[in-house]
Design a protein that fits this description.
The complex is a heterodimer of chains A (about 675) and B (about 140). Chain A is an alpha+beta fold and about 675 residues long. Chain A is built from 21 helices and ten strands. Chain A: Belongs to the CcmF/CycK/Ccl1/NrfE/CcsA family.
């Protein structure tokens, strides 16, 4: 089975090569049969990669330690869930998952793209083929997961305990669906440049793909953040670690792309800019893959490091980013311009959104790469952390959030800022009220905290105002309004939900950053401590045993302000025997929307234990907001007009004449 | 406005954004980036009082003093010289003697390094990269 998997992977590489060349050649020479090769080959490539992936998963499930990759990352006593998810909990397996998802997207384009213009479809599939071939070669040459051990050991070395969590089942696949999903936008952009024109089908296709990828990336990042929060035991949800930035940059650029794609689809403007953003977004995904997989950074995500891998990915990176940007420089000038709009309009608001998001992406990029570049040039080692990003990213994001509610209430082409302001009056009043309430009634609230809460309320009410206005609030009766609300396009709901989610996340961030309480103290059994109106009683430590670890469980009783025992909370220190590695399992009690977070430290000389306790007000809203954004994306994706099959015949007719775009 | 004026205003707007971002970035890099030092490099370095740095090296054997409430004291060494460090809080799970560590914080007037965060390895095989590189360059540690 293992050799079958390896062989399937080699065949998938061969398929990718065919997919890279034949449809492209067919599109250039107008050979329909050659163009038609792309689809079946893309599907076959996916099937073969899936077979290969299944073979590796089987090796993990059966604990086949004759496979080096399984021996290094698995253990026969590991729970089945972690045996399966352990398949991608290592460098080789995670690259295989990356390619699996890439080929999946290629196959999806092939299956759903039957109504695309034939040459565009062929070119898109060819570009997907290039990416697939490059990464399949990377796996086969530098990161083969199917290498056997001549003399198989009887027991494996186990998976890094930090990764033995349900998070590994969700976070990497979702993140990759997002990361790699942008490859479709990239392929569409490059295909348009190869053809030298952007037609209507192009515009209609890029938006749903961007939306789908963005949706998964949002979920993947939110999930990763929550996982780090509960698993690492430090109580932090975002560290501005280069590896996190690696996923955050494509998200920022992808969010910009999502918004400019709306202008492109609805108003035929900003086409060339959208095309550039599509290239940049996937370039940032590739950069992220390089940063995480090459070993230039040390993190939980960097598995074994091997210099040859870094060089290989760097070559892929240079080839694709350099090549696509060169192609853009050559061809962009020849694409026609058009689509005029007034600065005060929905288009203008979306351009402003793009300016904010792209400059914010740039500051994150600088903060991530500057230390690497500086070290390469001068040898100085610096670290750029939260203080840097608070000073650069923060001031760029805050004004963006302030203007978010204006976008949806402005009209296309020529908007009325005064009117928009009037329509948002209620939301503004609500935000102002929130600021005042926080200032007056919350102890120790700074002006920044109050303004932050106000901003979050402004976003939330702004999103609701948009829905209310579009359903005719104030001008029609309640019944008619409800009827209209139900009849609104799904994309309107999607926008409102996503912006609502941004508001929730902001609220959570401000809550934690401004009102968090933290206590570190040594506790002996029977002792109590107080935090945020709750009393925590330490019952003591008891030893326990799991399938592949031993642990010391610290039991706490949580007593509320009325002196009643609310619930119990368990925080433990685990020791994974195979890897001789300790981990901290935080005890978390959710008192919605806040959380109490308890981490155990070292034992003290007098039979006590060091305990670190946080009160995290509103913290769950950070991830709830992410989830709501994701749902917004999904709702928007269900919009009839966006449905992939919908463009049908009109797309073909429209494809005949190139549609123009604004050359900026 | 004509199309040309509009285009110019968009470009001007974009440049204004870029300018603001660049200014912020330079300011923040000057203020907020913290440099990494090994103990032996500290003599040559000129540090302002209270300046934040990252101190890297190995946890010196026999120097860890725990159990006095929540404070932990230890020394960070690069086999050439060592620096006493104090830290209040919970140390990372993989904090051990003779293991690579990075402490972030600043020096107190008495010359003790007061760390507000301590990073150790994420699992048992890998060292913090800066520490591994520096120790390898000194020849006191090798990758296994």
């Amino acid at each position: 089975m293992v050799e079958t998997g390896h062989f399937a992977l080699v065949l998938a590489f061969a398929m990718a090569l065919v997919q890279s060349v034949v449809p492209l050649f067919g599109a250039r020479t107008g050979n329909e049969r050659m163009m038609a090769v792309g689809g079946p080959v893309a599907v076959a490539g996916f099937a073969l990669t899936a077979l290969s992936f299944a073979a590796l998963t089987m090796a993990y499930v059966q604990s086949d330690f004759s496979v080096a990759n399984v021996w290094e990352n698995s253990h026969s006593l590991k729970p089945m869930l972690y045996k399966v998810t352990g398949t991608w909990g290592n460098h080789e397996g995670s690259m295989l998952l990356w390619v699996l998802i890439l080929t999946l997207f290629g196959a999806l384009v092939a299956v759903f793209g039957s109504n695309l213009p034939a040459t565009l479809r062929a070119n898109v599939l060819a570009v997907q083929g290039w990416i697939g071939a490059a990464f399949l070669l990377f796996i086969l040459v530098t990161s083969n997961p199917f290498v056997r051990i001549i003399d198989p050991p009887i027991e494996g070395r186990d998976l890094n305990p930090i990764l033995q969590d349900i998070g590994l089942a969700v976070h990497p696949p979702m993140l990759y669906l997002g990361y790699v999903g942008f490859s479709v936008c990239f392929s569409f952009a490059v295909a348009a440049l190869i053809e030298g024109r952007i037609d209507a089908a192009w515009a209609r296709w890029v938006r749903p793909w961007t939306l789908a990828a963005w949706m998964f990336l949002t979920g993947g990042i939110a999930m990763g953040s929550y996982w780090a929060y509960y698993e690492l035991g430090w109580g932090g949800f975002w560290f501005w670690d280069p590896v996190e930035n690696a996923s955050f940059m494509p998200w920022l650029a992808g969010t910009a792309l999502l918004h400019s794609a709306i202008v492109m689809e609805k108003r035929s403007a900003l086409k060339i800019w959208t095309l550039l953003l599509a290239i940049l977004t996937f370039s940032l995904s590739l950069l992220g893959t390089f940063l995480v997989r090459s070993g230039v950074l040390t993190s939980v995500h960097a598995f074994a490091t091997d210099p040859s891998r870094g060089v290989f990915i760097l070559c892929i990176l240079t080839l694709f980013i350099g090549g696509s940007l060169a192609l853009f420089a050559l061809r962009a000038g020849s694409l026609a311009a058009g689509g005029v709009f007034h600065p005060i309009s929905r288009e203008g608001a979306l351009v402003l959104n793009n300016l904010f998001l792209t400059t914010a992406t740039a500051t994150v990029l600088v903060g991530t790469l500057y230390p690497l570049v500086l070290e390469a040039i001068t040898g100085d080692k610096i670290s750029v952390g939260a203080p840097f990003f608070n000073l650069t990213f923060g001031p760029l994001m805050a004004p963006l959030l302030v203007v978010v509610p204006f976008g949806p209430v402005l009209a296309w082409k020529r908007g009325d800022l005064y009117g928009a302001g009037q329509r948002l009056m209620a939301a503004f009043a609500g935000a102002l009220l929130a600021v005042l309430v926080v200032m007056m009634f919350v102890d120790g609230a700074s002006v920044f905290a109050a303004l932050g809460i106000g901003l979050a309320v402004w976003l939330i009410l702004g999103a609701l105002t948009d829905l209310a206005l579009k359903s005719g609030f104030g001008s029609v009766s309640g019944h008619v309004m409800l009827h209209r609300l139900v009849g609104l396009p799904k994309s309107v709901f999607g926008t409102a939900l996503a912006h609502f989610g941004v508001g929730l996340t902001t609220l959570g961030l401000v809550g934690v950053l401004s009102f968090e309480q933290e206590k570190i103290l040594a506790m002996r059994p029977g002792e109590t401590m107080e935090i945020a109106g709750y009393t925590l009683l330490f019952d003591g430590l008891t030893p326990a045993r799991g399938p592949n670890y031993t642990e010391e469980r610290g039991r706490f009783e949580l007593i509320d302000a009325h002196g009643e025992a609310e619930s119990e909370l368990v925080s433990s220190k685990r020791f994974y025997t195979a890897r001789q590695m300790p981990t901290t399992e935080a005890g978390i009690k959710t008192i919605w929307p806040s959380q109490l977070y308890v981490s155990l430290g070292d034992p003290t000389a007098d039979d006590g234990v060091v305990v670190r306790v946080w009160w995290k007000p509103l913290v769950t809203l950070i991830w709830t907001g992410g989830l709501v954004m994701m749902i917004g994306g999904a709702v928007s994706l269900m919009d009839r007009r966006l449905r992939v099959g919908a463009p049908s015949r009109r797309a073909h007719r429209a494809a005949e004449k190139p549609v123009s775009g604004l050359p900026i | 406005m004509t199309r040309k004026q509009k285009r110019l205003s968009v470009i001007a707007g974009a440049l204004a954004f870029l300018g603001a971002a660049t200014a912020l970035t330079f300011y923040a890099l000057g203020q907020k980036a913290s440099f990494f030092y090994m103990p032996a490099e500290l003599q040559a370095a000129t540090l302002e009082p209270g300046q934040r740095i990252r101190l890297g090296g190995l946890v010196e054997k026999g120097t860890i003093v725990r159990g006095q409430g929540t404070e932990v004291a230890f020394s960070v060494t690069d086999m050439e010289s060592s620096v006493p460090v104090t830290y209040v809080g919970i140390l990372p799970d993989l904090f051990r003697e003779e293991q690579g560590v990075i402490a972030e914080g600043s020096f107190s007037p008495s010359g003790v390094f007061v760390a507000d965060s301590v990073l150790a390895k994420h699992d048992e095989t890998y060292m913090p990269k800066e520490v591994a590189d520096s120790l390898k360059a000194k020849g006191v540690w090798q990758e296994n």
